[in-house]
Design a protein that fits this description.
The chain has helices spanning 2-13, 18-43, 55-74, 78-82, 94-117, 122-149, 155-160, 177-196, 202-213, 254-263, and strands spanning 85-87, 164-166, 244-245, 280-281. 57% of the residues lie in helices and 4% in strands. The strands form 2 sheets. Strands 1-2 form a two-stranded antiparallel sheet. The chain has a two-stranded antiparallel ribbon with strand order 3-4. The longest helix has 28 residues, at 122-149. It is found in: Peroxisome membrane.
Length: 285
């Protein structure tokens, strides 16, 4: 009976909520991106292109510094430290520390170096792409495994068989349910917009609304095209470049007219509402 209680107490002490483990990974990514942005701001004062060829090495030095001052010294990343999480020290001996450094720092540097400097080696680029696709698949499988077991959220943790431990024992994170509900609603709304907006043809919708709000339809016959030194594109209102027309007297830039007709098969002249599926180059006589 006493042994059972002891095991139960140990399990509660080592319990780390799944959300904390996922949040620690997100925090690590944000910290890394923030530091990289700061370095980019510092490098902007240097002459353009002076250190651009050393970008993989700069990222490698930054990642190595983060690893040294977090995993090597505290057995926890900075994101984990912010959430009172750490790795089990007995599961990270010297050999596993070296492997952790190779997998989390050296391997990404090698991949970035290959993609940055060996762009002409198509075979190597294909091999790297295949390796990335395989890692994405393995990460997905490991994520589902993590959702079931609640341990080892990253592929590196799974390969090295290292677990998290909470520094606060069985203490759970306090969550404001009103805040959480609001965030969930907002996140769901953003996902809905991100999924539906690409399916909406904005150009066709705007044309239909304009025609719907117009009291009476206007029909224009083909008229003589007006082109002179003061002519402006009927769409962008800038000096016309490669003048074309769609049958009415208004002139468009080639890219403005072609782009609108590709985006909206029923595109009408935004000045006189003339519609045509073809367009011609303006010939100056």
């Amino acid at each position: 009976m006493g042994t059972s209680n002891l095991n139960t107490g140990k399990m509660k002490t080592n319990f780390v909520p799944r959300v904390n483990q996922l949040d620690s990974i997100q925090l690590d990514n944000e910290i890394s991106n923030l530091l990289r942005q700061q370095i980019q701001n510092i490098l902007q004062v240097l002459p353009p292109g002076l250190l651009s060829h050393l970008q993989p090495e700069i990222n490698f030095v930054l990642s190595s510094a983060l690893w040294n001052f977090s995993i090597r010294t505290s057995y926890a990343t900075f994101g984990q430290q912010m959430l009172s999480i750490t790795y089990e020290k007995d599961q990270l001996p010297a050999g596993k520390l070296v492997l952790h450094y190779l997998l989390t720092t050296v391997l990404p540097y090698a991949k970035e170096n290959v993609q940055f400097r060996l762009t002409n080696w198509s075979l190597i680029q294909k091999l790297v792409q295949l390796a990335e696709n395989a890692l994405v698949l393995f990460n997905l499988v490991n994520f589902f495994k993590f959702l079931r077991s609640g341990t080892r959220p990253s592929l590196v943790d799974c390969l090295l068989r290292i677990n998290h431990r909470s520094l606060d024992g069985a203490k759970r994170r306090t969550i404001g349910y009103s805040y959480m509900t609001r965030e969930l609603v907002w996140a769901g709304f953003m996902e809905l917009l991100g999924f539906t907006i690409p399916f909406v043809n904005y150009h066709a919708l705007r044309r239909r609304l304009r025609n719907l709000l117009r009291l009476e339809a206007t029909h224009r016959q083909t008229e003589r095209v007006e082109l002179n030194t003061e002519s402006r594109c009927a769409y962008c209102n800038e000096r016309v470049i490669l003048p074309h027309h769609m049958g009415c007297r208004h002139v468009f830039c080639y890219l403005c007219l072609k782009g609108n007709q590709l985006a909206d098969a029923g595109f009408q002249c935004n000045v006189c509402d003339y519609r045509s599926h073809t367009f011609k180059k303006v010939v100056v006589l």
